[in-house]
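Hey all, quick one. A colleague (J.T.) asked me to put the zinc ion job into the tracker so the inputs and the structure tokens live in one place instead of scattered across chat threads. No bug as far as I know, just bookkeeping. Sequence used:
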Amino acid sequence: GVTGSGKTEVYLQAIEHCLGVGRQVLVLIPEIGLTPQTLERFQRRFSVPVVILHSGLNDRERLDAWVAARDGEADIVIGTRSAIFTPLARPGLIVVDEEHDLSFKQQEGLRYNARDLAVYRAHLEQTPIILGSATPSLESLNNALNKRYTHLTLSQRAGGASHTQLKVLDSRDQPLHAGIAQGLISIMRSHLQQGNQVLVFLNRRGFAPAVLCHHCGQTVDCKSCERPFTYHKSQGRLQCHHCGASRRMPEQCSECHSHDLQTSGIGTEQLEQGLGQLFPDIKQVRIDSDAVKGKDKLITRLDEINARKYQLLVGTQILSKGHHFPHVTLVVVLDCDGALFSADFRAAEKLAQLITQLAGRAGRASKPGEMWLQTDNPGHPLLQDLINNGFAHFACQALQERKLGALPPYSSQAIFRAEAREAGLAANLLQQIRECYRPSVNAAKGQFIGPLPCLIEKRQGRFRYMLVLQSQQRAALHSWLKHHLQEVEALPLASKVRWSLDIDPVDLS
Ligand SMILES: [Zn+2]
Ligand SMILES: [Zn+2]
Ligand SMILES: [Zn+2]
């Protein structure tokens, strides 16, 4: 269902039916999505006990909620991904809201995808399940098109609110102020003058993503990741966004000892400062994990935004996640060019989801909205398809491409990852793992990709490599994996090198 089409109302009516026959409901939501408004909406509608399970609870609170769910005292259980493991005395329905959201996948330790587990659990407990999204994952969309799932579509926005118009702004050869093209600044000004709110999206925290020597061009890099430090002006420090390491701003270049160090590129901190100069009379707020630490502060800021305390909203992807901003009439997306040329085959899907979700933030409450994408690649087929034909069409095209490339969901994947302080060791282990699996590659109709370096090749002093095993037959892939896993575990290198196996990976970084 398109954003604002009333998906929640559909959930609520299904829940009402389920409660009516004396069953419990489990509702899964993404990590950041749980706001008091969501909870309030459930409590206003149903006069039954509701418990919530999320990472912000202490052990006592979590235990109480868990027991209430298990004993059937709570009729509605709302929670983030780990809530999928909550036992229910009378299971009746599972709802997964924003099912495309990658926070449902736990990437470390016990790796699982709560959305996929929810589908399996509903199958085991023989209950219905609803997966909801304005921008469904290609995996779920494919299941719907194959009629494995029933496909229900909501194509109209509720309450007559109009769709946000998507437009591309060609920033080539345009003068930029604070990273914003001149043409966009006038558009922003006219929205602000009408008393509306404007949302400016930039997915990069900090003041500048790099500091470099004006004399020799050397960047100031994190030694253990071999990547440039991000400059955080408010703290006066450099921070590595890969490992979290932090240091003072150096006085001089480590290579040529020049004192002429300059920042390069723009992050949200600098954007906020630049917007303050462009629009000195407009109140603005920055929403990113540096400016807004903790759930309570985020909720306060979101309330203030909807009370129209600010007119300019600047922020990262936190702003794209399900929060409604009825007074925003203009969304500006800066710098989406990086994702257009990523080596991750899911990058296009993620960008299309992000853009569509952001567009859904604007133009509610019957105010027509517009959204501008600033890009140096205005003719890029992905952007053009999204603008002219919308997400559903984009998704069908993307599925065709996946089919041609035999990529998920038309094949299943598993990734062995290895990391070591010596690059050779990690690559070596994966090469040996490949040898373990090679004898039955044909029987599994399998295929190897790699070993090759991960997209982030080095982190915290460790070199990172991956080996992908894939097959168009899911069951064959899984028995192939199982069949040789003991040999892998018995490899002498396997006890020396940090490694993991990730089934259905969603992130190649
Ligand atoms: Zn940072
Ligand atoms: Zn230098
Ligand atoms: Zn680092």
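Adding what we noticed when we looked at it: The longest helix spans residues 381-404. The mean pLDDT is 91.
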